[in-house]
Amino acid sequence: xxxxxxxxxxxxxxxxxxxxxxxxxxxxxxxxxxxxxxxxxxxxxxxxxxxxxxxxxxxxxxxxxxxxxxxxxxxxxxxxxxxxxxxxxxxxxxxxxxxxxxxxxxxxxxxxxxxxxxxxxxxxxxxxxxxxxxxxxxxxxxxxxxxxxxxxxxxxxxxxxxxxx
Length: 165
Prior knowledge:
Helix content is 26%, strand content 27%. By secondary structure, the protein is α+β, with helices and mostly antiparallel strands.
């Protein structure tokens, strides 16, 4: 179900499109039925779970955030991410803080159109791939070439994931 909007308030999908346009980033947004899990979303889109990239908003101890882009079939590796970022402590914020930090609800978070331009750390597994990710609203997915996204946002590419248990 599309998120409600008024003439003054752009939807999350509108914010994603505007941010992509402002950075010259070619994206494709597809409406899809709601999914209850990442594997279900992948099946709906007809792609493997690894083709969906999770955007995780991560809180630093100084109350700033970063985005970690992790393939759908992998998990974030906290030791690897802490080493790349150069900090001792990182954590996932609660849903209210994630919304405040990005302007998006969990399950729809994407760097494009976020209310803050937090630094982006992209897992090296996504390089060279066409990926699907959130599109700012439930029931939508965005497709983009990972290399173009990384370049448009100056993302740091590193090995920051691990196989899921």
